[in-house]
Amino acid sequence: MSSQDWTRPDRRTFLLGASAGALALPAAARATWSPTMERKTKHVVLVAFAGGVRTRETFGAPANIPTLEAMAKEGVLYKRVKSSNLGHFGAALSIFTGISEARGIRENARGGDPTLFEYVRKDGGLAANDVWISTSGGAQQTNYSYGLHPDYGARYGANTVDGDGLFNAEFKSILDAWGRPKALPPREAELLSRMRGAIGGGSGAGGDDSARVEKYILDELTSGTADIRGANAADAKAIRVARNLLVIFKPKLVSIVLQQADAAHGSYNGYVEIIRRNDEALGELWRAVKADPELRDSTAFLVLPEFGRDADLNSRRGLDHGDGSNDLEYVTATCWGPDFARNRVIEDDVQAIDVCPTVCELLGASAAKARGKRLPKLYA
Amino acid sequence: MRLLWFLLCLAAWGIAHAQVPAQTEAAPARALDDATLRAACMDLLGRPPLEVERAEWLGRGRHEFLDHWFARREVWANWVEEQLYYFLLIDNFRPENERVGELPTLLAAGKLDVRTAIHRIALSPSFDQRNPGADTFVTVVMEQMNGLRVQKNVRELEVAKGIYDGKPGMFLGKSGSTQADIVRISIEDRSFAAQLLAREYARIVRGERDKSVAAEEVRRFQRDPREFSAILRDWVLSSAWDERVRVRRNTPNRMWIAALHVDLLGRAPEAEEARRLRTALDGLSDTGPLRSVLARVLIDSGQVKLPEKSAIPDPTVWIGGLFQRLLGRAASADELREFVRAFHEPECRPATVLYALVTHPEYQTY
User: Fold this and answer.
1) Which of A140, A164, A300 is nearest to A239 (CA)?
2) CATH of the domain at A266
3) How far apart are CA A305 and CA A317, in angstroms?
4) Distance, CA of B36 to CA of A265 (rounded, Å)
């Protein structure tokens, strides 16, 4: 569904709506979802506030997270979101697939299930530049961009940028030493395109999307992103990259995957400091969205950790994740956006895997293989 | 009759003597061509052949190539790098101590086997730092080394976490009471051999082995881990590996970086140079645009030695040679025609031809 189609429900949406009406949904449910209602949400920012973050250090200590606290007051707060201790990789992946599936902690491979990025791109016919993930955890996290399901896969995947991997001062120094690629005169560019097109009898020239990404990368390398320092540098870069992507490409969906709170294994104080700084960086992103005339009334945020941490400190005065406690398995999710209720707190249990179908529905897609449900009581 | 006998003898003598030169000039079994030499170098050395190696090995037997390189440090340095990457012991978590640093030399000299090498890696402080805490450490050992899903082996996980914290217990059927015991028990278990051989086969040959063959190889490895080289040799000499050469797949970033340096600069990248580029490329799910940028930046940097256009007497030969060297195959007639036609246009430089080849998706496969 293109952006112009939001007021014209497709056949599937229409039938779903008709069925809902026929079943005479309770009044509360009708208030939360109506397929004929035009959504104001055109862009979604999904933040996996990951690395293992307990509610005790977020909404249990609001001074650490003024941005999330403010978002919650203007939005919906889910206080009991069930997550699974599947390791950081598997747990974050389950947010994107809507399926709790065990993955190895250091497994550097794609999952078998489609991700919300694939659902949104396939159902909405979206281009690659409409769907991005900005990560901070290196090579492993690029696997979030798409799964290996035969009906979905790479052709519907998100663009993934790992801020700390790409936009770091060391890499920038290499490019500075080598110099910039020279612009080709039009005729030479045409000959290059012809030769590339001849190889293997197919096309290999790449399209406008590739050229825009190339330009974005080069521009970003010369901006300040590569020079970000500090305890949360990788996370801060991921958030900065997302901010710039939103402003430049105005994508439908941007996801951010943070990771550095996992420093908690060795340092409780370091972990709290990272939470504070990440909240501050999220605040910058939120303000940038509010300052953008196109984004401010059409962008929704969903923020949640992939899981929490143990109830008690370990022998190094840090926090591991493996005790099966409520602190580990229940996290808090914050939702803010033009279609969402304001200042609503949900005490009922929901699941982290409910996020995938919720985001898909917001963007007019169906999370066909997901096992989660749409988050309840979300809409105004 | 005598005449017939004489003629038969003459014919036999002629055939016999005619076969002598034919035998000495016959190609060896599984002679290396550009495709197989490039693939073998990529698989074992993590880079394509240098020009001097190409001249040395083209046309020679694959078994000879393997015998030569298995005794060299470079193959084992690449193998160790692959293992470090598998355990995500990269960047800040890369082990820099001497015991890990000397692994390639010891493996090449046959003074150490691959199981002991992985044992050393898993006992390094970097492995511990990368996998902090009982839950993470034990989970990674079970998953990465033994191929066990912890969610399906909850009891083993809990016992091993206790052992990590100093509480004696039975893990994978053996008793232990320290963090080091967990690693020792893990690598001695049959599941370690099965997991190592399965992932190495998937890396080198791609796909899965016949189950009975796999079981026999695991037995061989368990009896003597030094058998690993012989098993690896069998794989590269197999028809399954011939098929792997035909079906190309995307080149991992670290290998693409090495290929670009060897193909354009005639040298492998420095370790630090490779690390920085790899970290950047690993940060993207679709590396195509950045690879394209990097290839063009390198060609434009002035470091790549390219002939003057006027110094290329026969563009067909020059372009055909680039296809062989960079893509490991001959150019088709259509490709050659289009390239040569473009080359004759005044705006086309030798660099333009190189751009076309190294920025094409086919160059990003191996």
Assistant:
1) A164
2) 3.40.720.10
3) 21
4) 47
The pTM of the full predicted model, rounded to 2 decimals, is 0.76
Neighbours of A266 (CB within 10 A): 17
Phi, psi for residue B297 in degrees, rounded to 5: -60, -45
Closest residue of chain A to B277, computed from CA coordinates: A171
Q: Please tell me the predicted confidence (pLDDT) of residue A60.
A: 97
CB contacts of A195 in chain B (<8 Å) are 338-339, 342, 352-353, 356
* Residue A293 included in any domain: yes
What range does the domain containing A347 cover?
Answer: 32-362
Residue A4 is assigned to a structural domain of this protein:
no
Walking along chain A (380 residues) 10 residues at a time, the average pLDDT comes out as 36 39 39 56 97 97 97 98 85 94 76 94 90 88 90 91 78 79 86 92 59 72 72 89 88 96 94 96 96 95 97 91 93 98 97 97 95 95
**Local structure of A353: helix, strand or coil:** helix
Asked if B357 and A107 come within 8 Å (Cβ–Cβ), the reply is no
Domain count, chain A: 1
Shortest Cα distance, chain A CAs vs residue B265, angstroms: 13
Q: Would you call B285 and A158 a contact, using CB atoms and an 8 Å cutoff? A: yes
Question: Comparing C-alpha atoms, which of B191, B210, B108, B198 is closest to residue B152?
Answer: B191
Q: pLDDT of A31-58, one tens digit each?
A: 344 443 578 999 999 999 999 999 999 9
Q: Is A181 on the interface with B (CB under 8 A)?
A: yes
Instruction: Select the residue from A144, A195, A217 to test the B interface by mutation, using most B Cβ atoms within 10 A.
Output: A195
Which of the following CATH numbers is that of domain B249-366: 1.10.287, 1.10.3470, 1.10.3130, 3.30.70? Answer: 1.10.3130
* Residue A91 located in a structural domain: yes
Asked if residue A374 belongs to a domain, the reply is no
User: Nearest-CA residue of chain B relative to A137?
Assistant: B283
Q: Which of residues 37-96 of A touch B (CB under 8 A)?
A: 85-87
pLDDT bracket for residue B5 (50, 70, 90): low
CA angle centred on B104, ends B102 and B109, rounded to 5°: 100
